[in-house]
Every structure is written in C-alpha cells, then in structure tokens.
Amino acid sequence: MWNGKRDNKAIFSDHWDEFLNRFGHRVRPVVIKEVKKMLECGSFANGYAEYECEKCGEKKKVPFRCRSRFCGSCGKVYIDNRAENMAEKLIQAKHRHMVFTIAEELREYFKKDRELLALLPQCAAEVIKSWWREQNKKENYTPGIVTVIHTFGRDLKWNPHVHVLVTEGAAGENTIWKTIKFIPYNMLRKRWQKLLLDEIEKRVAKREFKKLKNRLYKEKSEGFYVYGKGEVKSEKAAIQYVGRYTGRPPIAETRIISYDGQKVKFYYVRHEDGKRVEEEIDAIEFIKRLIVHIPEEQFKMIRYYGIYAQHTKDRPKLIKMVNDKIKELRRKMSKWRIRIMKSFGYDPLECEKCGGKMTAVDVYYKEYGSVMEIYRKRVEAEVDKKIKEVEEMDKVIREITGGRIEPLYV
C-alpha cells in the first residue's frame, strides 16, 4: 500500500512482489539480493545497537543499515567513502575527465553478456597508454588512469559507457614526470573503435558480428565518440568528480517528481541540448529500468591502470595528492557517527532529551540476539564451572583429612 512517499524504497515496496510474480524467472540472483537488502534496510528485525545517555539514562535503538549502493539511505555514505578512498590514490597532478562511448548497436551484446563490460575500461585505458608509449618509446611513458563503468543513460535506459580520469602527464623510464596539454581526441576515437570491436569479435559469434563490424566502420568513419569533459585541477575537484561519477545510482531520488502508487514521473537533462525532459512511466517499468544496472557480485565497476595500478614501480617516486596526515584524519572521520553528521546534518549519538552523549550498551543480532546477554550467560557458565571445581576440591580435601583441615582458597 502506497505510503505517500516518492522514493525508490516506496516504489519497490509497493510493486516488487508483483514484479517477481511476472518476471521472477528472468531476474538475476544479485538483483534479488540487493533489492531485499534495500527493502529491509533500517528494520529492527534485522538487528540494532542500543545506546544509553551518560547523563539522563535515556535509551535509544539504532537499526543496522544495509550498506548497499542501491539503497537511497546508504548510497550517499557509500559514495562519500568511495570518493575519499579514490582521492587518496591520486597524485598531485592535473587530471582530464574523458568519456568513451559505444555505438547503440553494440549495447545489447553487453546486456546479454555482462562480462563484456570489462572490455570498456580495459580498451579505453589501452588506447590512452598506447598513445603515451608512442610519444617516446625509450621513455615508455605511463600515465595514471581511473575508469568508472556506467551502464545507464540519463533516461535510465541501458547505455554502457566508461568515464575516465587520466593524468595530464606521465612517468617515464628516465623522466620522473612529463606534462602534456594536448590530447588528440580524433585519434583516440578511431583507435577506441578498432580496439573495442576487435576485442568483442574475439568473444562473440564471428560471422554475425563481422557484418555489424564492417557496417559500423562505414557508418562511423570518425570512430566511436570520445569527448573530454574538462580538467580536474585540484584535490577538491578530484573528490567532487569521484563523488559524482563513482557508485552513483542510476537516478537520484531528487529527480523523482511524483509517484501516485502506480505511475512514476521523473526528469532528466538531455545531453544533446541541455533541455529538461520529463517522463512518466508505470512503476513496473521504472523497476525494470533500475535493476538492469545492478552489477554482478564482485564485478569491479572502478578500475585503475598505469601508475594507479597496484604495485606499480612509479608510485613511490610521485607525490600523493592527499598527504598522510590528511589521510589519517579522513580515516578517523569515516567512523559511523561522523559520516552521519556529514551526510545528514545531525549527531546520531546526541541525546534528544538532554543533549548528553550516548554510548553503546548492547548490540542485537537477528541470528544471535543480545551480545550482552550472550556474554552474561558465558560468564555465568564459567563462574558455575569454577564453583563446581572448588566444591569438588573441597570435598576431596575434607575426605583425605577427615575434616580436620579447612581448605584455604585465595
């Protein structure tokens, strides 16, 4: 029953069972798992922590959260964590934000076989690295590359593409850092097209794909569209970029204009002309458009290449964008309480009655119950065991001495 809200959780709560009845045989297991987590997020039945005010004794229960990026409540914290974790990997250099797109005719291949999505960052990174290598083969320049796979367009439809954050410079064999200003997008487009088509052809039915491949070369003689979205000049800008493009849900709930229990109305800004477009669709169709973008478990939507790849030999030479002191401060601030204050503007551990500080006194798990109760029973069992041992010893000593010596226990 519709509760008057217009967020994803309300829409899924009203229609998910109906959706499963109609399309359950086609729904991926990971989708069922993630939707279940979202719907149960914040339910006391799944466990909670209990806090007590140090001043007035007021008690408060805080339910566990699902921590899913698909969840509207947990998604913001997830994005903030992702953004700061990624910013810690970046070096002190300007970066360029680029987007590598594919032909519309290829989208269905990636939908049928989601493993093909890994080709997007792999090929985009190789295009950039190969161009850098050609600048000086002896130096073998290596840039830093971060890639983020997106599967959705602004209208929520299936539209796989990859966002790339690349350094405006590279580390060489002898040169610590070589800066560049110009990136030849025309060359990147053609190289991106060829490399991606070749890699897809290796993995699909060749005869069928060969025809499409030849047609795409003719129709898109300039290559697949690659465009630059501008420079990322500072750490702050890098964090903003990361926050915007990593872990982002297909639709921000602020874009949902209305929901009447059956129809969902939302808007998006059309990329081609910057015009606001409003669309109203059935709730079932809305759910269908959202869940297709849930990635498979363990599939990495964010990937690192070049000097940002793990264990690269160039990283020790370069200065991190975020120094160790700031990094440590961020780790401390990543605690649950600070995260809530930063994301939602209130202190969850401030007593609503007197303003005092609340401390955790117990944790309740769905599977085990109260942690304090488990601990109490364990302590009682250990005490009972000790008492029995003492009683046994007392009995033995009294029997040996005929009751003439009193046992001394210390």
Walkthrough of the structure:
It is a single chain. This protein is 41% helix and 20% strand. It has 410 residues and is of the alpha+beta class. Among the domains are: 76-250 and 293-322, no CATH class; 372-401. Helix 3 (72-87) runs antiparallel to helix 8 and helix 5 (119-135) crosses helix 6 (185-201). It is globular. It starts with 7 loop residues before the first helix and ends in a 9-residue tail after the last helix.
Report the C-alpha radius of gyration, rounded: 29 Å
The overall pLDDT average reads 85
Structural class: alpha+beta
Distance from N terminus to C terminus (CA atoms, Å) equals 66 Å
What overall form do the CA principal axes indicate? globular
Number-wise, the strands total 14
Q: List unreliable stretches of 5+ residues.
A: none
Helical proportion, percent range? 40-55%
**Hey, roughly how much beta strand do the residues contain?**
15-25%
Number of helices: 12
Topology as H/E string? Answer: HHEEHEHHEEEEHHEHEEEHEHHEEH
> How are strands sequenced across the largest beta sheet?
8-3-5-4-12
Largest pleated sheet:
5 strands, antiparallel
